[in-house]
Every structure is written in structure tokens, then in C-alpha cells.
Design goal:
InterPro entries: NAD(P)-bd_dom_sf, SDR_fam. Belongs to the short-chain dehydrogenases/reductases (SDR) family. Keywords: Oxidoreductase. By secondary structure, the protein is an alpha/beta fold. The chain has one domain: Rossmann fold (3-Layer(aba) Sandwich). The chain contains six helices and nine strands. The strands form two sheets. Strands 3-2-1-4-5-6-9 form a seven-stranded parallel β-sheet, sandwiched between helices.
């Protein structure tokens, strides 16, 4: 299938890495359903914007229904939506815990389940989960237990989905970023954050979008956790 015929859903698509993935897909001829809590409909007939909390199953249903109604199919789902709260473990509140699970886990579960039901009808499809290299490479200065708990679960779920649906024509992969230059990180922090990587620099949002695009165009790759992290997961 040519990219011009592909339909992708991208969660957490209003800014940062999600917006970059949408831009990259559009440049390759994809049609995109973009969702985030507050997202505006752009002046582009190849994009449908769906505003809502992706942790809410009703939002996931509206996203899937919009893709089918507008474009007739779903070829790729990018589970990019995520919350990162860096706190010492004992400082996390119940509200922090609930918020992270809602987006990082519920947000994956509902939309992925509904999307795979559609993909099974076409016997083809691709799920890409955006996780974090902190799962494999914890950093003492970046307390991240909730990120590891939830995104580590997505890494494991990626492999499980890949095996469960391998004979159904549906692939599942993950992109595991290091620290990326995005609106999450103020420019004055970039030098210190870059130093946490063996390559001595932060990644660009385009690095993650290009990794997603590679995986989407690699039909023999499934169950892969692709680290785009300046060498962090390899060692230090």
C-alpha cells in the first residue's frame, strides 16, 4: 500500500512529538486522525481533529469512528499521548498516580483495543507505542518510577501484541526515546539534559517521527523496541 492511501491515528497530537509525527505523516501522503485534550481542526482535508481525554473510552470510540467515517479504514495507530511526572517515589500523590495511569495505560488500552478490532477486518495494521528509554536506563537525577511502571508496561505489551496478532497481519512496535527537544523542556535545560546522553546532546522531535515512519514502512519488523536515545540504553 502506498503512503498516499494510509490512514493513521496519532494520540497526544496537539503539540511536541505528536504534532511532529502528524506533520511527518502528512508530508508522506498519509491521512491522519489527530487527537488530544485541546486540539483545533486545521485547514487541511487530510486531517480530522478529535478533542478529548484519550483515557476515556468514549473519546477513543469517537476517534475510531471519525477515522472510519472520514477515511474508511485505519492502517496505523501511534500511541504517543503520555504524562511524565518526575518526583521522588514517596512524593507522588494519588492524583499523580491516577493521572499517569489514565493517559499512559488507559489511553493505550481503549483506543488500541478498538483499533485492532477494525484492523482485523482488513487483516493488516500497525501499532506504534511511544515509550521512554528510562525504562531500560534509570537516571539518578530523574526520578521516574511512574514512567517506568507505565511505559515499561507498554514495552512488554508491545511484544505481547506482536506475537498475538502476528498471523493476523497486524504488527506492533515501540519507539523508546531519550530526552527530546520538545516544549516539555525549557531551552535553558538543554545543555544539562543533553549531557545525560553518551552522544552529549538531546534528540530532535524529527528523530522520533522518522523512527515511527521507518517502523511503519518495515513490514518484516514486529515486536521491536527501537531506542532513539543517543546511546543511553547501550550504556554509559
Amino acid at each position: 500500500m502506498s503512503n498516499a492511501n494510509k490512514v493513521a491515528i496519532v494520540t497526544g497530537a496537539s503539540q511536541g512529538i505528536g504534532a511532529e509525527i502528524v506533520k511527518t505523516f502528512l508530508a508522506q501522503g498519509y491521512r491522519v486522525v489527530a487527537t488530544a485534550r485541546s486540539i483545533q481542526q486545521p485547514d487541511d482535508p487530510n486531517v480530522v481533529a478529535v478533542a478529548g481525554d484519550i483515557g476515556d473510552r468514549a473519546t477513543a470510540q469517537r476517534v475510531v469512528e471519525a477515522a472510519i467515517a472520514r477515511f474508511g479504514r485505519i492502517d496505523t495507530l501511534v500511541n504517543n499521548a503520555g504524562i511524565f511526572i518526575a518526583k521522588p517515589f514517596t512524593h507522588y500523590t494519588q492524583e499523580d498516580y491516577a493521572a499517569v495511569l489514565n493517559v499512559n495505560v488507559n489511553g493505550f488500552f481503549h483506543v488500541t483495543q478498538l483499533v485492532i478490532e477494525q484492523m482485523e477486518k482488513n487483516k493488516s495494521g500497525h501499532i506504534v507505542n511511544i515509550t521512554t528509554t528510562l525504562v531500560d536506563h534509570a537516571v539518578s537525577g530523574v526520578p521516574s518510577v511512574l514512567a517506568s511502571l507505565t511505559k515499561g508496561g507498554l514495552n512488554a505489551a508491545t511484544k505481547s501484541l506482536a506475537i498475538e496478532y502476528a498471523k493476523s497481519g497486524i504488527r506492533a512496535n515501540a519507539v523508546s526515546p531519550g530526552i527530546i527537544k520538545s516544549p516539555m523542556h525549557a531551552p535553558e535545560t538543554h545543555e544539562a539534559l543533553g549531557a545525560l546522553h553518551p552522544m552529549g546532546q538531546m534528540g530532535e522531535m524529527s528523530d522520533i517521527a522518522n523512527a515511527v515512519l521507518y517502523l511503519d514502512s518495515a513490514p518484516f519488523v514486529t515486536g521491536e523496541i527501537l531506542h532513539v536515545d543517543g546511546g543511553q540504553s547501550a550504556g554509559h
